[in-house]
Write a structure and sequence with these properties.
heterodimer, A: alpha/beta, B: mainly alpha, about 0% strand, globular
Chain lengths: ~260, ~280
């Protein structure tokens, strides 16, 4: 499927996927997906439930490895490195590629320990250094002002939106280049959703963000590029503006105008 | 109308069943305390027995049971928790592991005398440990391992998947994830299950009968290769083998009471540990 590139000529592609097929046991979930994801931009994956968008996202930090019986064919590279090559280091990959999950999942520990968890397992022991990382990450995730006086309280006591921003801070604390977000706002109220979206807007210049969303308005609001998936296939990948004004494919148009999905 | 009546009848019935069970247990407890308390004294728990246990105290039996419990815990807890971690976190879920699980559950229902014979064959004779604390502890450990494994695996599985995912996604290895974000949250459940097993080990007679327990040995053990007296076995001797069974009746009750208090102490300890971990990791 050769086509003209939707990207400006100087675009640097951080993630490249070629002919990716993915299987859950005998069931094929992704079919022959090839895609280049640009660095320091927000790329949104949209499509109806079960279309494979989350599965595709979880390929980039090898989270699908944790599910028994899954299999991947094809070539996936991050900064040119084959992340599924034999002997490639999953730990350092996940350090580079952070993830925020649909259901906020802060550890039942203090706010401080949540954010410091990643740096600690990667070897930072100095209390002062940890404190700086924690503050920086919480400031970055726009949570610092709300929690700076109670860093030692249990994170479970935070509201849903705060918990999700804590999870973002926790992911930022290990210093990733890429942030994968799997419907990060789908369980939140509208006000908290706006805060997460604003936050993504602030992070877009420093991180490569890939976000799965089933909310098309959200994709339109926050992303630079949008990929539309349907039944395990990549139907269209274009600048968000083009997708929502002049989609190339009929299927894309039907989906974004609400004819199905 | 009829449905309302049957609702009422079921409700009364269930309550009656519950009360009758509480009543029976309460009566047993009351009976032991009523007859045991008068014979219970500092001398009784701190002195050696005299005249085949007809006089004196039960210190060697208390020390014996305690050392058996320490040995049992030291063997069964690490083995049981590690097995549970393997089954819940590492092993693939397939026919083979299902069979292992079934085998473990079946083992939990094997009569304790069978464990006793197994311990006699393997530890006492084949491995040549002799009738000793070591052989008895290992036998008791085998007996309670299934209980510990099953309850620990359940506790581990109850930890939400999201914690594992979050930790792995931050670049933690599987073991780091288990150690920092699965095991701590399941400890209260693991301890509860383990205490049930250990309480059972404290009261069992059959497994220690053939592997460690001494009929009458009025001294303390020097090493793990010594025989010891043990509370449940001592109780059994006093009640059925003693020539003057009627005369030692108060001593029987007092021994039973000491055993009960010991198990109660264990359970209380476990409850405190549970409360501690519950408070620390609330979710």
């Amino acid at each position: 499927m050769v086509e003209t590139s939707p990207f400006p000529a100087d675009t640097e592609h951080v993630i490249t996927a070629r002919q990716v097929n993915f299987f859950y046991g005998a069931t094929q979930a992704l079919f022959d997906i090839s895609m280049d994801i640009p660095g320091r931009r927000v790329t949104a994956f949209i499509g109806p439930s079960g279309c494979g968008k989350s599965t595709f996202l979880r390929i980039f930090n090898r989270m699908n490895d944790t599910i028994a019986g899954t299999r991947l064919e094809g070539d996936v590279r991050i900064n040119g490195e084959d992340i599924y090559e034999n002997g490639s280091n999953v730990v350092s990959l996940r350090r580079k590629v952070g993830m925020v999950f649909q259901k906020s999942n802060p550890f039942p520990k203090s706010i401080f320990d949540n954010v410091a968890y990643g740096p600690r397992i990667h070897g930072t022991k100095d209390r002062q250094e940890l404190a700086e990382i924690v503050e920086k990450s919480l400031v970055r995730s726009a949570l610092w002002d709300e929690v700076k006086d109670r860093l030692d309280t249990n994170a479970i006591g935070l509201s849903g939106g705060q918990q999700q921003r804590l999870c973002i801070a926790r992911a930022l604390a290990v210093g990733p280049e890429i942030l994968l977000m799997d419907e990060p706002a789908s369980a939140l109220d509208p006000k908290s959703t706006i805060r997460i979206e604003d936050l993504i807007g602030e992070l877009r210049n420093d991180y490569t963000i890939v976000i799965v969303t089933h909310n098309m308005q959200q994709a339109a609001r926050i992303s630079d590029y949008t990929a539309f998936f349907y039944e395990g296939r990549l139907v269209e990948f274009n600048p968000t503006k083009k997708i929502f004004t002049k989609p190339r494919e009929k299927q894309t148009e039907d989906y974004i105008t609400g004819r199905f999905g | 109308m009829r449905r309302q009546y049957s609702e009422q009848i079921i409700y009364v019935l269930i309550r009656l069943v519950m009360y009758s069970i509480v009543l029976v247990i309460g009566y047993i407890l009351f009976d032991i305390i009523r007859h045991g308390l008068p014979a219970l004294s500092w001398e009784f728990v701190s002195q050696y027995p005299r005249k085949s246990g007809a006089e004196g105290g039960i210190l060697p039996a208390i020390v014996g049971t305690l050392s058996l419990l320490v040995g049992t815990i030291a063997v069964a807890l690490p083995l049981g928790i590690c097995s549970a971690i393997y089954l819940s976190e590492y092993a693939e879920q397939n026919r083979f592991t299902d069979m292992i699980r079934l085998a473990i559950i079946t083992l939990a229902g094997v009569p304790s005398i069978v464990y006793g014979l197994f311990g006699l064959g393997l530890f006492v004779l084949f491995l040549n440990f002799g009738t000793s604390i070591l052989a008895g502890s290992l036998t008791l450990a085998c007996m309670i391992l299934p209980t510990i494994i099953v309850s620990s695996e359940e506790a581990l599985r109850a930890v939400p998947r999201g914690y594992r995912d979050a930790s792995l996604a931050l670049g933690a290895t599987k073991w780091e994830t288990i150690r920092t974000n699965v095991l701590p949250y399941s400890l209260s459940g693991i301890i509860t299950g383990s205490i049930l097993g250990i309480g059972r080990a404290a009261g069992e007679t059959a497994p220690i009968l053939l592997t460690v327990a001494a009929f009458y040995l009025p001294r303390l053990p020097n090493s793990i290769f010594d025989q010891v007296m043990a509370l449940p076995y001592h109780l059994y001797i006093l009640a059925t083998q003693h020539p003057e069974a009627d005369k030692v009746l108060p001593l029987q009750y007092a021994t039973a009471l000491v055993l009960l208090l010991l198990v109660l102490g264990l359970s209380l300890g476990a409850i405190f540990i549970r409360i501690h971990f519950r408070k620390k990791y609330r979710w």
